[in-house]
Amino acid sequence: xxxxxxxxxxxxxxxxxxxxxxxxxxxxxxxxxxxxxxxxxxxxxxxxxxxxxxxxxxxxxxxxxxxxxxxxxxxxxxxxxxxxxxxxxxxxxxxxxxxxxxxxxxxxxxxxxxxxxxxxxxxxxxxxxxxxxxxxxxxxxxxxxxxxxxxxxxxxxxxxxxxxxxxxxxxxxxxxxxxxxxxxxxxxxxxxxxxxxxxxxxxxxx
Amino acid sequence: xxxxxxxxxxxxxxxxxxxxxxxxxxxxxxxxxxxxxxxxxxxxxxxxxxxxxxxxxxxxxxxxxxxxxxxxxxxxxxxxxxxxxxxxxxxxxxxxxxxxxxxxxxxxxxxxxxxxxxxxxxxxxxxxxxxxxxxxxxxxxxxxxxxxxxxxxxxxxxxxxxxxxxxxxxxxxxxxxxxxxxxxxxxxxxxxxxxxxxxxxxxxxx
DNA sequence: CCGAAAAGTTAACGGTGTTAATTTAGAACC
DNA sequence: GGTTCTAAATTAACACCGTTAACTTTTCGG
Lengths: 206, 206
Hints:
- 2 copies of one chain form a homodimer.
- By secondary structure, chain A is mostly helical.
- In chain A, about 60% of the residues lie in helices and about 0% in strands.
- The first copy, chain A, contains 10 helices and no strands.
- The N and C termini of chain A lie far apart (about 65 Å).
- The interface of A and B includes residues 27, 162, 192 and 196 of A.
- The first copy, chain A, binds a DNA duplex through helix 3.
């Protein structure tokens, strides 16, 4: 059986179809396996040919989400190129915050799956295999701030926890609709990141 | 029928028993009505004498949570007494942050119900009836910071959003177990609130 | 062409929230 | 004190859910 035929038996790439339909759901966490199967045009147990369980499907979706987010991060902040000047260090953290918020804005359902109630379970899906993971970018950004002289003291664990809390909290507020958290994503993100700069004792930009 | 007898028919205050059992559940959002009824020693449809639906029960629980949180806030920060000096304004915000985090620490299940995936639905349960609600305290605290001269400029909406993001994000990280967010609640809360002071351009404490 | 195996099917189990019809038990009145 | 009324519970049932078992269909390799 060649590779193309592997996914062309009856349905033709059912796995991908299931994933796409699931990602399109307004609420991924409460999605029904049977409904999902029906919308894809297949019987419910067919899903089990491709996913061990509903939970496994959700883990896969969360993993996809983490990879997308990491991709956005890598675009905003090339982790392979650490050295730069102060203005770029600042710009990187700004872009990182904007990317975080954009993701929550663009894919709130996926965001809630990744960071919601059962995040402890899904988080393990985001464990790295050599690549820079979601949770590595912020510490890197803070280290760069110190190295380029934007902040005098090396960032402590508390500094990192604070910065993550601020950005993550903002994104959570937007994705969860707890409040309006109003304004365009980039503006709001920029505002919060500027506050973070000040909190870390950063020098004013040139 | 007198008021006491109203809740002493067969079971004797079933409504309260249901609420207590539900609050004791390790995960309130995914709690099963039938199991809950069984643990309380009653048949499943009996629940519907006291709650219109599972969702209504959850709304009631979230409402209880918001009242408890508001109670904690009121203890940390008497909203009826606004005037004070700079050190008290600072101390109030510190206590507010600590109370927020303590709540998330002490009742993570309730916290997740209140601020989790379906928070948009449950939030409406927290609409005020004259009292100072959960969402009023932080703006009040920031205004006091300005009035007592801790921060020069009057707090903007962006300042408030930032401060809420930071504290809410921290509590979310702890309640959701996304990360360790390690350390005792008071220390971690104090650290984040100190960062908030700096971000708002507060004068150093005397 | 034919066996093997992948990918789907239907039937069924236990569990869920919820509703309808019914029974039980406490309260109130004569 | 017995009767009646009604609140508070019950059992039976429905539709849905995730999941498993047993079976059928389709495709590929030799």
